[in-house]
Amino acid sequence: MTAPSELALRDWVRTRLNTSIVRELATLDHGMKVDEHRRAIEELLVARRLPDELDWVPREVLELSAHTVCTERDPVPGSAGWRGHVARLFSCLVLTRITGWRR
Fold it and tell me: In 5-87, where do the E strands start and end?
């Protein structure tokens, strides 16, 4: 029996996480270190394995995204609510993989 791929959901959400959503995620820490956050998120999108630990960059923006409440229940693809759900899904799946993260 083959073990499930830990990257299956990441790969699914990656196809929905466009450049502008990545940029929005990268700005969540009050616009600090935006380019560093963006590059780190982009690295997670193509990593062969999700990390056990994350540095402050991009952990801070992923945590901020994970705690964002998406109020739109049935958002239309491309809408602000849809974009928020996609960003939050990506953030949560990375954060649940790392050691010591508590929601």
Answer: none
Query: Is 73 in a helix, a strand, or coil?
Result: coil
Q: Which two tokens stand for residue 77?
A: 């693809």
Q: Is residue 21 one of the residues assigned to a domain?
A: yes
Q: What is the pLDDT of residues 48-58, one digit of tens each?
A: 999 999 999 99
Q: Is the peptide bond before 58 cis (omega within 30 degrees of 0)?
A: yes
Q: What do you get for the CA distance between the two ends of the chain, in Å?
A: 32
Domain with 48, as residue range(s), is 8-97
Does the pLDDT value for residue 103 go beyond 60?
Answer: no
Q: Over 70: is that where the pLDDT of 88 sits?
A: yes
93 in a structural domain = yes
